[in-house]
Design brief:
Blueprint (H helix, E strand, L loop, with lengths): L5 H17 L4 H14 L2 H14 L4 H13 L3 H14 L4 H13 L3 H14 L3 H14 L3 H14 L4 H13 L3 H14 L1
Helix pairs in contact: 1-2, 2-3, 2-4, 3-4, 4-5, 5-6, 6-7, 6-8, 7-8, 8-9, 9-10, 10-11
């Protein structure tokens, strides 16, 4: 794995900015710069850079997606959802965008909208496990731990030694105050590692 330091990102932002002095409105580099600013926590500069890209091309899916990330990281959930919806308008069959929007809806308690986005995510991707995890999250948001457990157990049937699924089931049992069953699944997880 490559480890990047804050200084590496600061240098990258400097180099991207320098390049843009010679090639203004290079949207690919502007998006890299905006992403670097987001990583550095420089929201204002990221916002300004993304607005430049979107002024020239308001339907730039990548820029809209970065804008949604910026808004979410700044705590502007409604603006983040709005930016994601705009990104989806430009790329309606993009599974990753539907997954992100489903998560946002689930995290804000908008379970019916989350379910609709999960269905679209499932339609455009082959990520059965991702769909199942999102659905479990929605069931947890609505207090339906039993239904969440049903899906987790379906996942376990497909891969009975998956430590992540075992730990998930343990967590679901703990959430439903069945500590004895939770302990069983947590112990199974530990035996695998």
């Amino acid at each position: 794995k490559i480890k990047y330091t804050l200084k590496d990102f600061e240098q990258a932002a400097h180099h991207f900015s320098e390049y843009l002095n010679f090639a203004p409105n290079d949207s690919a580099v502007e998006k890299l710069l905006a992403n670097t600013y987001i990583i550095l926590g420089q929201s204002g500069q990221a916002q300004h850079t993304l607005q430049n890209v979107l002024r020239i091309n308001p339907n730039d899916t990548a820029a809209l997606t970065l804008l949604s990330q910026l808004e979410f990281s700044s705590g502007n959930i409604d603006a983040g959802i709005s930016a994601l919806k705009n990104a989806i308008k430009t790329s309606p069959d993009n599974a990753r965008l539907h997954k992100q929007l489903a998560k946002a809806y689930a995290n804000t308690g908008q379970t019916e909208l989350a379910k609709s986005e999960i269905a679209l995510y499932q339609k455009f991707s082959n990520d059965t496990e991702g769909v199942q995890k999102l659905t479990i999250n929605v069931y947890l948001q609505t207090g339906q731990t039993g239904k969440a457990l049903e899906i987790a157990n379906q996942m376990l049937v497909k891969d009975p030694v998956n430590p992540n699924t075992l730990a998930l089931i343990g967590s679901l049992y703990a959430k439903s105050s069945n500590n004895q069953r939770a302990r069983i699944y947590f112990n199974k997880t530990l035996k695998i590692h």
